[in-house]
Design brief:
alpha/beta, Rossmann fold, 2 domains, nucleic acid binding, SAM-dependent_MTases_sf
């Protein structure tokens, strides 16, 4: 048995030691990893390594196998984008690189770790963010939210908007906006201390620290020094009944508290709505990413709940898949 095969086989044996149920669930995946490691030992270049990983992930039923293979191999050979990887397809690879490819592939195939956590960073709306478990991975839908905010009248007509990002996570929403609006400033809050550390780290990497502040605090407890022009949030919004249907990549590795929004998915959303008048300037905008079942409920709350009488439901927007995903609310002047 070659060194690469021994390494991967030993790791998969360790994975199987977790218990009989885990052994049963992972048996086929472990066997596929062992087979992949054997194939990788014979790979001479990047192209054959990508093909080998892609093939094994397809056999193991991993979602998006081609992109997973490209990102994993790209990380190992120093290609920081898929286009850069394709320029290196004929580059030779050695034993240490094959071992690392095998190890990362094992984590993707057996443990179903998201490829974003494996490569350690991810592109989001013209910026690159460091990502690590369990902080929520920025999604394409949230890029659409950023676009809606940037195109809004409030942001387009103001020279120096102030932003609040509730549940900031990696800092994705706030940092993407500030990168496009050079005179804007913002605050990001999150109850997870690791999220606050990561968002500060990303702010430093993007040279935005002078215009940002990140705090570990809940939206209920946050007291702003001044009111904001725009409040934005991608809060926990998944209803309880939908949590078990999430893919393993999500429910096994991402923070449940950043996903689960309570019985109807609106626990944190209701809290944000109640606090909006104490956070947002008169005439300011609140933007939320929500579950498709929420826009009508939120509109009804704004219309009928006397505690929300300062808020006007402006409109809902659909995401690229056609789901009602975003709501725009304004505080009355």
């Amino acid at each position: 048995m070659g060194g690469l095969t021994r390494m991967c086989f030993a790791v998969s044996i360790g994975q199987r030691s977790a218990g009989r149920a885990a052994r049963h669930m992972c048996m086929n995946a472990d066997e596929e990893v062992e087979r992949l490691c054997s194939v990788l030992s014979d790979c001479a270049d990047v192209r054959t390594a990508v093909d080998a990983v892609d093939h094994s992930m397809r056999r193991a039923g991993v979602s998006e196998p081609a992109s997973s293979a490209e990102y994993i191999v790209g990380r190992v050979v120093g290609a920081n984008s898929r286009s850069a990887l394709r320029r290196r397809l004929d580059q030779s690879i050695g034993g240490p690189e094959k071992e690392l490819i095998g190890n990362l592939s094992m984590r993707r195939i057996v443990r179903r770790e998201p490829v974003q956590y494996l490569v350690g960073n991810w592109d989001f709306h013209h910026i690159t963010l460091n990502v690590r478990t369990p902080i929520l991975i920025p999604r394409p839908e949230t890029e659409e939210l950023v676009e809606l905010i940037l195109k809004s009248e409030t942001v387009r007509t103001s020279q120096a908007c102030s932003f609040l990002d509730i549940g900031t996570g990696t800092g994705a929403i706030l940092l993407a906006i500030l990168k496009q609006r050079i005179n804007a400033t913002g605050v990001g809050i999150d109850i997870n201390p690791e999220a606050v550390r990561l968002s500060r780290e990303n702010s430093d990497l993007l040279d935005l620290s002078a215009r940002t502040c990140f705090q570990q605090i809940s939206v209920e407890e946050f007291i702003p020094e001044t009111l904001f022009d725009v409040v934005a949030s991608n809060p926990p919004y998944i209803p309880a009944k939908d949590m078990q249907a999430l893919e393993r990549e999500v429910k096994d590795h991402e923070d449940t508290n950043a996903l689960h929004g309570g019985i109807d998915g609106m626990d944190v959303i209701r809290c944000i709505l109640r606090r909006t008048s104490q956070l947002l300037k008169p005439g300011g905008d609140l933007w939320l990413e929500v579950d498709p079942s929420h826009p009508e409920r939120i509109e009804a709350l704004c219309r009928n709940d006397i505690s929300l009488q300062e808020l006007t439901f402006v409109e809902k927007h659909h995401d690229f898949r056609g789901f009602a995903r975003f709501v725009h609310i304004r505080r009355r002047r």
